[in-house]
Amino acid sequence: MQSFSQHLRESKSVTWVRPSPSTLKTEYAVEYKKHLSPELGEDPYPTEKSFLKAIETAYTEVITPSTDRAIRNRSRTTSMKGLLNLIKGYRSYPKFRNEKTLEDMKDVMVSGGKMDMPIVVEDTHGNRRVFSGNTRMDMAFILKMNPTVLVLTLPKGIEL
Predict the structure, then answer these.
(1) Domain boundary assignment for the chain
(2) What is the CA radius of gyration of the chain?
């Protein structure tokens, strides 16, 4: 059996891909409507269609540990045990997120598989907040990889 560090040395880099339309629709219903929109106090994307159109203009960026420090709402978990403890607090635990899903995520990342890009929102002042994919970002950093994210710029006048 390989040690974790040996496994990392032999790993490939994950291929970050844009989330599918069905995944983005779920993100809109869960992350946007239940979390971000109430936090903003405004609703720049009142419909799923307006959100999907805005996501089309999102740009990609590789996030380093240094640039990650400026992103709000990040857990910055540094171990698999810590990541498991984090997801145990999610409503989706254990049905959708659990020990197996974390191991599967790790396996995809180290084998060079495809992984949905996390989404970070940014206001016109450069303030940033993780929108979705906190766990994926943590896993990437634990595995010594820099995640590629989609950066969605909020409309002018809407601040984080």
Answers:
(1) 4-153
(2) 16
Task: Give residue-wise pLDDT tens across range 71-113.
Answer: 999 999 999 999 999 999 888 888 888 899 999 999 999 999 9
Report whether 15 contacts 114 (CB < 8 A).
Answer: yes
Phi, psi of 113 (to 5 degrees): -75, -175
Our CA dihedral for 84, 79, 139, 71, rounded to 10 degrees, sits at 100
- The CA dihedral of 128, 133, 136, 141, to the nearest 10 degrees, is 10
User: What's the token pair of residue 24?
Assistant: 């983005």
pTM for this prediction: 0.90
Element (H, E) at 153: strand 148-153
Nearest residue to 143 via CA among 116, 95, 111? 111
Greatest alpha-carbon span in the chain: 54
Q: Report the alpha-carbon distance of residue 56 to residue 18 in Å, rounded.
A: 10
Q: How far apart are CA 66 and CA 82, in angstroms?
A: 20
Q: What is the pLDDT of residues 31-60, one digit of tens each?
A: 999 999 999 988 999 999 999 999 999 999
